[in-house]
Design a protein that fits this description.
elongated; 297 residues; Rossmann fold; alpha/beta; 10 helices; 2 domains; NAD; 7-stranded parallel sheet; oxidoreductase activity; 46% helix
Length: 297
């Protein structure tokens, strides 16, 4: 079976852990050469050592545009070109709500989650233009679609990623550059620990707990894993998605298909509450209806 990224060169940001690490591993397995960019130099170097010459690591803080440009230019210099950019780096940023607005924290979070996507896109275009086209994939979030999944500033930034992706596609299509976004649901990574101000080890332990316990959080009945998002990124980056641009792929285990009561019979919904029924009483009514269906008149 042909490797899906054979001969392609990719840049992946946030590459040293979680979704980024899983994407590096998968892209290499599918034939790509990868510039892995991450501000964690120790973990990034270990990743490159483990995966061999197909991976070149460069330290990169994506909030520093000069470092981000250097990483993208570095991929072209090291591997001879650039075909794919997976803008994945991120963290929880400020957890402040509306009244606790702090300009510096807001600006940092937006720079990390949104400006880095725009900057990386701009820096990658000249290299992809020389290759006759390319593919870009941006990591957004279910918090871009609905309230209640993440803090205010994070959610706004991730919504910006979705709209940036759509608008940028209108310019990039003429260059045969595709750009799409992934909307992950609850994925077992260190980002949740970061939102709670945990250190690296504590965040890792929390991610492991989420992987074990979050199967009931969505209709699909299992935890979301970094590999799930890596597979989506691989598809969008590959020629199999050659007719797809300016849109997003939601990978959330069904989390956003509807409120919990729509798929979990143990949770009361608005109608149940209005009738004063418990979930148990509602299940009993459904069972009774199943035994005695209404006959057509």
């Amino acid at each position: 079976m042909a490797q899906r990224l054979q001969g392609k060169v990719a840049v992946i940001t946030g590459a040293a852990s979680g979704i980024g690490e899983a994407a590096v591993e998968l892209f290499v397995a599918e034939g790509a050469q990868v510039l892995a960019a991450d501000k964690n130099a120790e973990a990034g170097a270990a990743l490159a050592d483990r995966l061999g010459p197909a991976v070149h690591f460069m330290p990169c803080d994506v909030t520093d545009c000069a470092q981000l440009k250097a990483a993208i230019d570095g991929a072209a210099a090291h591997f001879g070109g650039l075909d794919i950019l997976f803008s994945n780096a991120g963290a929880g940023g400020t957890a402040a709500g509306v009244e606790a607005f702090d300009p510096a924290s807001w600006d940092f979070t937006q720079a990390l989650l949104l400006r880095s996507v725009a900057a990386g896109t701009a820096y990658a275009v000249p290299h992809m233009r020389r290759r006759g086209g390319g593919a870009m994939v941006n990591t957004s979030s279910v918090s871009a679609l609905q309230a209640g999944y993440a803090p205010l500033c994070y959610s706004v930034a991730k919504a910006g990623v979705l709209h940036y992706t759509k608008v940028a596609a209108t310019e990039l299509s003429a260059l045969r550059i595709r750009i799409n976004a992934i909307v992950p649901g609850f994925i077992a990574t260190r980002i949740f620990g970061g939102l709670m101000q945990m250190d690296h080890d504590q965040s890792g332990a929390l991610a492991a707990q989420i992987a074990q316990r979050s199967g009931t959080a969505n209709p699909i009945g299992r935890s979301g894993l970094p590999q799930d998002i890596a597979e989506a990124a691989l598809f969008l980056a590959s020629d199999a998605a050659g007719f797809i641009t300016g849109t997003h792929l939601t990978v959330d285990g069904g989390l956003t298909i509807g409120p919990r009561h729509s798929w979990d019979p143990n949770v009361a919904g608005p109608m149940t509450d209005a009738l004063g029924l418990s979930p148990e009483q509602l299940r009993a009514l459904r069972a009774q209806r199943a035994q005695h269906p209404v006959q057509p008149s």
